[in-house]
Amino acid sequence: MDLSARTAEQIGEAIRRTRKARGWTQGDISARTNLRVATISSLENGDAGTKLATLLAVMAALGLEFRLAPRGGSVEIEDIF
Questions:
Q1: Could you give the number of structural domains in the chain?
Q2: What is the DSSP string of 6-75?
Q3: Are 58 and 35 in contact (CB under 8 A)?
Q4: Which residues of the chain have pLDDT under 70?
Q5: Among the four residues 12, 24, 67, 74, which has the most C-beta atoms within 10 Å?
Q6: Structural domain boundaries, residue 30
Q7: How far apart are CA 5 and CA 37, in angstroms?
Protein backbone atom coordinates (compact mmCIF):
# COMPACT_ATOMS: atom_id res chain seq x y z
CA MET A 1 0.00 0.00 0.00
CA ASP A 2 1.51 3.33 -1.09
CA LEU A 3 0.22 6.45 0.62
CA SER A 4 1.18 10.04 -0.12
CA ALA A 5 1.08 12.74 2.51
CA ARG A 6 1.86 16.45 2.35
CA THR A 7 0.62 17.66 5.73
CA ALA A 8 0.96 16.56 9.34
CA GLU A 9 -2.72 15.61 9.29
CA GLN A 10 -2.25 13.41 6.22
CA ILE A 11 0.79 11.73 7.78
CA GLY A 12 -1.21 11.06 10.94
CA GLU A 13 -4.09 9.61 8.94
CA ALA A 14 -1.72 7.36 6.98
CA ILE A 15 -0.24 6.09 10.26
CA ARG A 16 -3.73 5.48 11.69
CA ARG A 17 -4.91 3.62 8.57
CA THR A 18 -1.82 1.42 8.55
CA ARG A 19 -2.16 0.65 12.26
CA LYS A 20 -5.84 -0.24 11.91
CA ALA A 21 -5.18 -2.35 8.79
CA ARG A 22 -2.86 -4.45 10.96
CA GLY A 23 -5.54 -4.71 13.64
CA TRP A 24 -3.33 -2.92 16.18
CA THR A 25 -4.36 -0.47 18.86
CA GLN A 26 -2.45 2.63 19.86
CA GLY A 27 -1.43 0.60 22.91
CA ASP A 28 0.19 -1.99 20.64
CA ILE A 29 2.28 0.73 18.99
CA SER A 30 3.09 2.17 22.40
CA ALA A 31 4.39 -1.20 23.59
CA ARG A 32 6.55 -1.61 20.47
CA THR A 33 8.05 1.89 20.65
CA ASN A 34 8.09 2.73 24.39
CA LEU A 35 6.12 5.88 23.55
CA ARG A 36 3.06 6.97 25.49
CA VAL A 37 -0.35 6.27 23.98
CA ALA A 38 -0.99 10.02 24.18
CA THR A 39 2.05 10.55 21.93
CA ILE A 40 0.74 8.05 19.38
CA SER A 41 -2.66 9.75 19.49
CA SER A 42 -1.08 13.17 18.99
CA LEU A 43 0.85 11.92 15.95
CA GLU A 44 -2.27 10.35 14.44
CA ASN A 45 -4.20 13.58 15.00
CA GLY A 46 -1.65 15.53 12.96
CA ASP A 47 0.16 17.43 15.70
CA ALA A 48 2.76 19.39 13.75
CA GLY A 49 4.96 19.49 16.87
CA THR A 50 5.65 15.75 16.76
CA LYS A 51 9.37 15.00 16.78
CA LEU A 52 10.84 13.37 13.71
CA ALA A 53 12.35 10.66 15.92
CA THR A 54 8.85 9.84 17.19
CA LEU A 55 7.46 9.58 13.67
CA LEU A 56 10.33 7.36 12.57
CA ALA A 57 9.93 5.07 15.61
CA VAL A 58 6.22 4.60 14.91
CA MET A 59 6.87 4.01 11.23
CA ALA A 60 9.53 1.41 12.04
CA ALA A 61 7.12 -0.39 14.38
CA LEU A 62 4.58 -0.51 11.54
CA GLY A 63 7.18 -1.69 9.01
CA LEU A 64 7.00 1.55 7.03
CA GLU A 65 9.80 3.60 5.52
CA PHE A 66 10.16 7.30 4.89
CA ARG A 67 10.57 8.33 1.23
CA LEU A 68 10.91 11.69 -0.43
CA ALA A 69 9.52 12.22 -3.92
CA PRO A 70 8.66 15.18 -6.11
CA ARG A 71 5.08 16.34 -5.74
CA GLY A 72 2.54 15.60 -8.36
CA GLY A 73 3.13 12.08 -9.50
CA SER A 74 5.42 9.19 -9.97
CA VAL A 75 9.01 9.33 -11.11
CA GLU A 76 9.76 7.83 -14.52
CA ILE A 77 12.82 5.62 -14.87
CA GLU A 78 14.24 8.01 -17.48
CA ASP A 79 14.20 10.81 -14.90
CA ILE A 80 16.52 8.85 -12.61
CA PHE A 81 19.35 8.49 -15.12
A1: 1
A2: -SHHHHHHHHHHHHHHTT--HHHHHHHHT--HHHHHHHHTT-TT--HHHHHHHHHHTT-------TTSPP
A3: yes
A4: 1, 73-81
A5: 12
A6: 8-62
A7: 22
